[in-house]
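Section handout, structural biology tutorial.
Before the tutorial, make sure you can parse a SMILES string by hand: atoms, branches in parentheses, ring closures as digits. In the record below the ligand is flavin mononucleotide, and the chain has 201 residues. In the tutorial you will relate the predicted structure tokens back to the input. Do not try to memorize them.
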Amino acid sequence: MTHTLTESNLIQDPVVQFKHWYGEAKNLNIEMYDAMALATADESGVPSARMVLLKGFDHDGFVFYTNYNSVKAQEMEKNSSVCLLFYWKEIERQVRIWGQIEKVSRQESEAYFKTRPYDSQLGAWASDQSTIIPDRNHLEQRFDELMKKYPEGNVPLPDFWGGYRVTPDAFEFWQGRPSRLHDRIKYIKKGDDWEIVRLAP
Ligand SMILES: Cc1cc2nc3c(=O)[nH]c(=O)nc-3n(C[C@H](O)[C@H](O)[C@H](O)COP(=O)(O)O)c2cc1C
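Predicted structure of the complex:
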């Protein structure tokens, strides 16, 4: 089925447009529909990208969780501009979101952390994310120690772990079409409004 993104079918509010596409990707059971590349840059402008999972979004922003000491966290501390990228191959769609990052509240991180499986909770404690470790055994030993320290149902939220929210200032929706005449619609935040433009593919 050929999908289109035309001025007559697009939604004026980019968050609602995203919700529509995200909902379709989810309903089609697209594998890892919630996975997105997160691009950051260090102080000198050297970029870095990695996958993270989208854990929620609304008009306040797009939320993911990670280690607050990781490379990405250090970069975002210095440079709050980030870019998110989704790709849903089966429906030939790509969405780019540019925005500014901020940490979510501790209460929000606590609430989410409680919903994570036991293994993932311990994993957050076990990994000094992005640091050099001697070997794999180091990680497994640490995990075993943590299992004894924190029984299931009793794992506290690490103070070095939590969520970030990206507040968007631009979106680009890309819809693949035959003959490479793809649709590209960009929304740019202008005060309280969004300017909508079409880009050449
Ligand atoms: C599909 C996928 C989803 C991932 N989701 C997350 C995530 O939600 N949070 C996270 O910290 N790392 C996640 N990772 C691991 C990151 O890609 C990355 O390796 C890690 O966060 C360290 O990145 P950094 O050293 O740039 O900070 C995911 C990896 C993949 C392949």
